[in-house]
Amino acid sequence: MYAREIEGETLTFGVSGKLIMNALVMYDHQTRTLWSQFLGQGVKGIQTGVKLDFVPVTHTQWASWLETYPETLVLDKGGSYRYDVYDPYYEGGSAGVIGESRSDGRLDRKTMVVGVSAGGRTKAYPFDLLGGQPLVNDSIAGQDILVFMERDTGTALAYDRSVDGRVLTFQLYQDGLGAQAYSTDAETGSKWMALTGRAFEGPLAGKTLDRALSHLSFWFAWKDWNPETEVYEGAAASSAGT
Is the pTM here over 0.90, yes or no? Predict the structure, then answer.
């Protein structure tokens, strides 16, 4: 998700009908610039090279979201939330409309990953691996990252695990799902909500972890756009508790 204000002007976007490496290309009504959905950047027109500001989103189940944010407004789509027309595509082996642009066999092409960007580098965290290691303390190009995965609710989030210049190391406590899932940090013993990154108990209560720039994607799309990406393979520094 991106903010649509640039230099004080609010742009209105539409779908151009074009694709770049299987990813949607948007356009804005005001300048007719074409924008890459994957990059969040103008790619043709007077706004070429201009980047939209990243707005963090949470991909999770409705029940978990509503429990966390009970005052949420919902877009009325006339009942079309009942099913997903893309289910056959998710389960099939095809790679988008035009296929892969690059070959990279480190993961199966339709493996879901959390792709994280930090310090000019990128790293892919496979869902299959995170399902058994749901909280990862890691670093990318010197930036300390926390990745949280909850398979039951389809939730995957990435945070900066530095607070006020201090790097924290987290451990997950699994006595709840969704809004009830929380972690603790080894340095202060504070408790943190997994879905929001906010500390609710302990010395750091009231602090909130900054979200890292992340993208949920099939592997074939992530590596096409990020050919130099690293792939997370597990680390002793990661931990999960009970």
Answer: no
Residues with Cβ within 8 Å of residue 192, at least 6 apart in sequence: 170, 182, 183, 184, 185, 198, 199, 200, 209
Residue 223: CB atoms within 10 A of its CB come to: 25
Residue 37: partners with Cβ closer than 8 Å, 6 or more residues away: 23, 24, 25, 26
C-alpha separations of 58 from 23, 76, 135, 155, 195 in Å: 20, 19, 16, 7, 8
Amino acid identity of 208? T
For the chain, the residue count is 242
pLDDT of 188 over the 50 cut: yes
Q: Is the pLDDT of residue 97 over 80?
A: no
Number of Cβ within 10 Å of residue 196's Cβ equals 18
Q: Which residues contact 242 (CB under 8 A, 6 or more apart)?
A: 173, 174
222: enclosing H helix or E strand: helix 219-225
User: Region 129-149: what's the mean pLDDT?
Assistant: 92
How far is it, in rounded angstroms, from Cα 190 to Cα 199?
7
